[in-house]
Fold each of these.
Amino acid sequence: MTRYGWARLVIVVAAALALEILCRANVIHRLILIPPSEMLASAWQILVSGEMKADLYFSLVNIAFAIVLSVAGGFLTGLAIYSVPLLRDSVEPFLATYSAVPPIVFYPMLIVIFGLNRVPQIIIAVMFGLVPMAMNTINGLRRIRPVFLKVGRTHRISVFHSVFRIQLPAAAPYLFVGVTLAVSYSVIGVISTEFILSASGVGHQISFAYDNFDNRTMYGLVVLLLGIATLLNATLRYYSQRMLQRWAR
Amino acid sequence: MKARRIFHIAALVAMLLLLWQTLYLLFGQRVLTPPWTTFVNAWTVLKSLEYWPDIAESMRAFSIALLIACGLGMMGGLLIGSWRASTEVLEPLLVNINTVPKVALYPIVLLIFGLGIWAKVVFGVLHGIVPVMISSIGAVRSVNPIFVRCARTMHLTRSQMLSRIWVPACIPEIFSGLRLGFSLTLLGTIFGEFFASQKGIGFLLMNAIDLRNVPMIMSLILILIVFALLANSVLLAVDRRLHRQNQVHG
């Protein structure tokens, strides 16, 4: 780990310690916040006991669906908008304003159409994640240096090779930014909709525990969720950096 | 060129309305109301005095949240960004915080701030502040180093550096961040009203959902979308202008 990485770790640990001391000294009431050590213990317990296995599984499957759909859909949408001039002129200005509308407002409508199951939740998550992916795809494709394509043409490489050896690697930094955003928005979309109205899932369990003043379970689940999000993020960052390094050579 | 752009946009709007009407014909009254009826309903909602207290409450919470998110986010971003070590240490942390689903933190906010306007404000701030901060950091880091070197040669103090160099040079980039912050803060505030509040547009929406009052749901959604789109177009126009200006002078 780098020097900066250690500093980051120290900050996180110090913040957790400060919180622990404040909680143990009763400055913060137990009804508001429980000590971080207890949160961790509770998260561990939830994970080991398997009492919420079904909910965890439900949420993770939904998140996986949402990620795949928003990355693939966003990439194809971006590709279409980039390559069809008519779409580029008419749709692109709207993409910039799209983020202003919280997709979550459509959730009630979708529930009425599809019923209270995973479908409306995945749709909302995809609505969150697809557009950032599409915008970054357009950005990435637009910034491919024309020289690269010309060199490819002089060497008479096939379209297949042009796509996989030149265009995708050249657009990769932007594509990865898009994927990162799509992943985090998918998580946000799935958990938020579960929190609002759902019959199962981690978000639903958090809101259930909250309604029952079950702080221990609630904070355990929150910590678990933060852990999942961080893990997803770190994995993604590690692999994207490795791939970019390999392509850069 | 201008006429063509307007034509394209009009065509897109027409297509969306057509899609909406088709959806109505497919699913019927039970699920959604047709475009024209929705516009009329939304107008009735706005015209009757009954809902103005809620709209005013939402607007108040939103403006306070926006002020805090943008103010603190910008200041924090400028401070962190003006020092390389703090950027290296804190930026990845902020990016990670940004990907955490903030709804999960909602119960905590509610336990600390209780029912009322402050929980919504804090929730709005929570959504908006980190993106503003990240883009402010990016703005500071991408300032032309020649400006900074020039200022150092002239022995500017730290506060002078901030007001004369950093802020003017960063404003276009920061403004783009504020635009993002605007929409996320709106999302956060409405979100906050969904769960535990007794007033506000989000509360009305949740109420309408519980009562299966489809016309009301649709008109509220329409009002929210039109507001967000209008505000965003204004911000986008300012944004483009700022970026153009900077290109001319910089």
Amino acid sequence: MNKSWQLVFCGLLSVLLALTYLLFDSGLDTEFILPNRLVKLLAMLTGGIAIACSTLCFQTITENRILTPAIMGYESVYLLWQALLVLLFGLNSPLLQDLQLNFVCSTLVLLGYSLLLQRWLFSRSLQDVWQMLWYGLVFSLVGSSLTQFFQYSSSPAEFSLLSQYSLASFQRAELNQTLFSALLTLLVASFIWRQRHQLDLLQLGALQAATLGVNRALLLRRQLALIAILVAISTSLLGPTAFFGILIANLSATFSRSQSHRHRLPLAALCAVLLFLLAQLLVEHLFNFKTSVGLLLQLCCGGYFFMFLIKHRQTS
Amino acid sequence: MISVQGLTKRYGNRQVLQDLNVDFASGKLTALIGPNGAGKSSLLMCLARLLTADSGQILLSGQDIQAFSLPDYAKQVATLCQFQALQLQLKVGELVAFGRFPHSQGRLQRSDHLAIAQALDLLGLTPLQNAVLHELSGGQRQLAFMAMVVAQQTPYLLLDEPLNNLDLKHAVQLMQVLCHLRDQQQKTVIVVLHDLNMAANYADQVVAMQQGCIRHAGDVGQVMTATTLSELYQLPIQVLHTELGRFCHYFNQPEKLYAC
Amino acid sequence: MLKYLGLGAIFCLLCLASLLLGAKQFSLAQLWQSDPVAWLTLTSSRLPRLMALLLTGAGLAVCGVLMQQMLQNRFADPGTTGAIDAAKLGILLAMVLLPGAAVTVIMLVALLCCLASCLFFILLINKLQLRHRQLLPILGLMYGSVLSAIAELYAYQQQLLQSMQGLLLGDFSKVIAGQYELIYLILPLVLCSYWFAHHFTLLGMGQQLAGSLGLRYQQLVWLGLLLVATMVASSLMTVGAIPFVGLVIPQLVARHCGDHLAQSLPKIALSGAAFLISCDLLSRLLLYPYEIPIGLTASCVGALLLLSFLRTPA
């Protein structure tokens, strides 16, 4: 299918599913149901774009199709920070109650983590991508142990707040936070969009890209900062989406006719939104809320990933 | 002209470049030759600003190369690195278009499209411009990369062992393109070559390196003689002159090299 | 020879320290005088704790090396292949579906879940024939997180989530005489692994090579899985989940002693035990008299060790 037709098709499908989600079984109730669903829809759009952009860019700058910000420990750091806040300041502190403030300091923490990562992505050659993976995995594992410990030693009220953070769901989104996140995501996405040509050039490898005038150090620093902001947005809005990023990145790579970011970024964003809408529709109408979106997504990602590997395995 | 002054580089306790002083003449094709570990690629990487030397300086038309900004340098010097085989899902046309990045930052104007078309035409790749890279043969892929570097339209071209893994026809084709660029567009070309015969027949100037030092630098006729080459490569080499050009003969050695 | 004596002395010192340290202080003098309180502390809390530490450490380290041999991959261990998560799910299922069941029954259910999950994972990995070895822990973690998510969702619905987390967080302060005997199962299993050390080493070289040397591949894998599942289930039930032990210890020992299990297995077991005892001492000393759960200490120390030898190539 032609590149532009693909985007148009996905776009139309998303609009269709979005309308279904909004209007189906709502009784056209403009007082409560429709506004509620609109907010959730906005959250899905914002989260989808944020995850797609952050994962795709991360894979480009690490020149690898397996790593994602989630695997590199970003989400663990976020969850750990929330648990630490609860432990140190208690539930009633403004750092937890005021969502904007919480978002700002979580983003700062993630930016700090990015700086650390960048120092290290830089001092080693990218051949050590697997080493990086190990570092990321280890941080994630330690992070989840620490988080479990904090959760265990917190009061039931604190625990229920923290456990909300650890499961992905669209139910938490509330209007102000979603609007703010949406605007910020658009801003960040537009910065990334402006750098799409430089990202394309990174495919040739760091050395060759440098001979064409791409300042890799600067590019990496900027991209990692933008990725940190996007991860903060998606995790605070939707919760940890873990391996969903790999699913989106690889799906869009499989279906995309071209490697250029001009096509892959919008396609990935649309795929993410489509999958979110599908998952939410299934949970609401097929499973009647007996399961959670997070679980459904994880099952799909796991299943897709295994099928992907089976299809591309070495035939010996 | 590129002028190298007092260039030194070491990795750990290995001295890769030892106080190099050499000039690369403008509008000429210079071949860098020498055995493995001589430092040819390291010198080229320093010229390309992909490697920072420990001391010394390199002057491009009288100006220190470190004074250029990265985008400006990319408009002066184009480098073809030794490319690692990656799964590139790029079309030939898209790859060549990358060469215009220093000039247009990705937004292609008419002048860029013209440059791309000219580069494809020069390398004979116009019928292949929509082919995907990993479906081409190794030789065609290298020519595509060559086209990218040509499209960059810089006065200086640096190439690191561009003939590796090329069959005879594509290798000759590439050398002919380099000579064309030197003659018709007055470009300064510096190539690292392993193949002595390619250097002997296509280069104007030759710089011979050994263990981080420059042993000989000058006209091809002066440098590529039996004595200098034999000493450089530690192997008896004869240089024969035929009506088609020079031929370096080092086959059928009387002495065994594999056993003591 | 001297090196072994020295290491042995350090090991004994660690054990002694573990026996003597704790919230309730007593001295050797008191023991000598047959002080009843001191003896009670020793026999009902300290000694069981030491035994649990020794056996869990040895057991988890041996599980790690067995999984690495079965999957022919250095990054396999119960934590990165979903075994611990499957056992967790088993415990939860048993607690909900068979309320009031005996501890051994719960352990049996956990064991069966763990066995089924590991078998599935091994079959999957063999079918996938991964080009990059390092992909295995990612797949394992993905698989484990799916199992974990199912368990968490189920627990959440049954209002059991926080207590489940508490139950399964590695913590040796739960170990009291009368409630920990299940852990003694590990001893015969470790001895059994040692008996088959030679076989397991060959297993690690791949199905084809093993087969051509006359090894019964399938039976051996079944045996290995049974050993691993039992050790994981019993340690999970007695003390909870402790990450990194199976991953870090075999690598450390392999660097010094090579990959032949007949030589390295005893060292792996003892190193695992020593590692856990040291972590336990650390958890008890850092915030004296409060205790940090060992899962946390082992994660941090294990992570540091793992990172430090990722930096130095083999």
